[in-house]
Design a protein that fits this description.
The chain is mainly alpha-helical. It has 6 helices and 2 strands.
């Protein structure tokens, strides 16, 4: 039987499924070349900088909420109002979302620059500029 005809048949697929499951997928080879079970994922440590950045992200969220309460905006259309409120929602959830993504995705030694960038990018600038002016 040719390979073209074999592709149209179901015979032998069960053996292939069992073979791939028994190959040790998901396990890394050990030092002696044998298959070893997965190592547990590195525990995520948060030092004082991580907790400080979380507090600043929460403060940014509160700042965005204060901006929304203090500056109500009227839109001429329902679509404009919906889009504006979507932007407000995204502004409110951006600081804690940035913190969470950096905490989960960045290596431990590289978190500080990403958290500082997030602090600058997601800061409630209208509130900060209004207070400083």
């Amino acid at each position: 039987m040719s390979r073209d005809e074999d592709a149209l048949r179901w015979e032998g697929d069960d053996e292939l499924d069992r073979a791939t499951a028994d190959d040790g997928a998901g396990s890394a080879p050990g030092p002696d070349g044998a298959s070893a079970p997965d190592a547990p994922r590195e525990a995520r440590r948060r030092g004082p900088l991580g907790w400080l950045m979380l507090a600043l992200a929460a403060a940014s969220t509160v700042g965005w909420i204060a901006i929304m309460v203090l500056n109500p905006v009227q839109q001429p259309s329902l679509l404009g109002l919906a889009m504006y409120q979507l932007g407000e929602l995204l502004a409110v959830i951006a600081p804690p979302l940035w913190w969470f993504c950096v905490d989960r995705l960045a290596p431990v030694g590289r978190r500080a620059p990403w958290w500082l960038a997030g602090l600058v990018v997601t800061a409630p600038w209208p509130l900060a500029v209004g207070v400083l002016a």
